């Protein structure tokens, strides 16, 4: 019996999934929608809708006050801009210095003790990664007082997790054959590290560092909001006195810095890899 | 032909192996630029370190606070401010979910529009522009503006995270669509399919697993960001943390930080697991 013998109405229709599979997917979408509506209700419980409906008016008002930017304020921005770049670069260097030993402790093929040191190193990396640099800055400013130093340490502590994680993954992905060849010559542990592993991870190390530097330039631009120096401090001061033309100028400067740093990091990574 | 067992390389007499390790080629070939860069870096380092001003008296006072903070971190106080902490946490979590859902929904058309192989040139330019603006502006700066426009609270935070999600998902989705297997799209086109049918039958099945993975990843990032934008008044757990630090209540701040770390770890592991399961 072929398909054509069955009357058209009773012919089986091809479906991508079984009936149960389709029902499960519909139920999943329904669950997501329900969860969304529930969350939305909780979130907007305390929203003042008057302000929200007023927003277009407020936006027009803000735009009229913020434009044109106050170009003459630029004279007072060069110093904070220099500070911002220093915070990002020194912070990246600090992050690298702390992250490299951590990465070697955390990688399963180079760690000296799998039971104790590796979990500790992994915890340090995760803890550093889950706290944003702005929160690090908030903590450090209340301990060290406002200034560049708090910013550098905040950027450094946040970078440890990022560089550490990517670097230890790179170390774990090294080619075992080269390491075996070095081991077969009778090399010591340090020599294996120096001649077998380091040359393999060096390119990704440079790439990761430059990438993090690029991110750090963005982050250091706003650290000043909590008092950790740099151009963000100027932003906070201008916001406090509602000097919107200055705010516009500062944001334009930050945008320009970000674009330049992204271009530099793209060029450097292109040259290395 | 010489009868040697060892490999012969130029500059070496036949029959000898190299006994010394030679350094691999340098990254920067010119000796002048190597030295110039090194000296420049050194000068910069001295200048930069010179600009750091440390008020040691302030640091001494701060060290005592640092000790209290570490003590607070080791003995977190969850109970005293539990009402504030739980409100902040619920705000953060709800803000994260709603902003991810709305952000992904908006970024799908923008991502399709920003893919060169399915969108006409003028739509492509507009969508790429939207993505570039969204990516270039920091969350914190966007949050400052949204707080100024929409008032304090979770709604401004929701809008900020949605705005940031659009740039992130839009860009990655567009790149994904540009990288699809063209033969499937070709086959669907050959059946005389309309543009919507092309998207639905050729593009969507190929990019869907990755879109779900990206959305889960963004959910993770949005939670982390929601802990930060509270500092400028956009609601969530960041506001609670900021208040606790301003009041010098380090044990409550320690509790908030531990909760953030725990949620980030849980979400990172579960989203990694889910992404592997989806793909």
UniProtKB/TrEMBL annotation, chain A:
Keywords: Cell membrane, Membrane, Transmembrane, Transmembrane helix, Transport
Single GO term (MF): ABC-type phosphonate transporter activity
Residues annotated as domain ABC transmembrane type-1: 81-265
Key word Coiled coil present: no
Coiled coil residues, start to end: none
Cellular component per GO, a single term: plasma membrane
Alphabetized InterPro entries for the sequence: MetI-like, MetI-like_sf, PhnE/PtxC
Topology of the protein relative to the lipid bilayer: Multi-pass membrane protein
Transmembrane segments: 23-43, 85-108, 243-264
Subcellular location: Cell membrane
Any one Pfam family match given in the protein's UniProt record, by short name: BPD_transp_1
Membrane listed as a keyword: yes
The family this protein is said to belong to: Belongs to the binding-protein-dependent transport system permease family.
Record PANTHER family: ABC TRANSPORT SYSTEM PERMEASE PROTEIN P69, PHOSPHONATES TRANSPORT SYSTEM PERMEASE PROTEIN
Protein's name in the database: Phosphonate transport system permease protein
Phylogenetic lineage: Bacteria, Pseudomonadati, Pseudomonadota, Alphaproteobacteria, Rhodobacterales
Automatic annotation (TrEMBL), chain B:
UniProt-annotated stretches for the region Disordered: 1-20
Domain of life (superkingdom): Bacteria
PROSITE patterns, per database record: ABC_TM1
GO cellular component, one term: plasma membrane
The keyword Cell membrane belongs to this UniProt entry's keyword annotation: yes
Membrane topology: Multi-pass membrane protein
TM region(s), chain numbering: 32-52, 97-119, 140-169, 253-274
Subcellular locations according to the entry: Cell membrane
GO molecular function annotation: ABC-type phosphonate transporter activity
ABC transmembrane type-1 domain ranges (all copies): 89-271
Record InterPro entries: MetI-like, MetI-like_sf, PhnE/PtxC
Keyword field contains Membrane: yes
Alphabetical keyword list: Cell membrane, Membrane, Transmembrane, Transmembrane helix, Transport
Family statement: Belongs to the binding-protein-dependent transport system permease family.
Name the UniProt record assigns to this protein: Phosphonate transport system permease protein
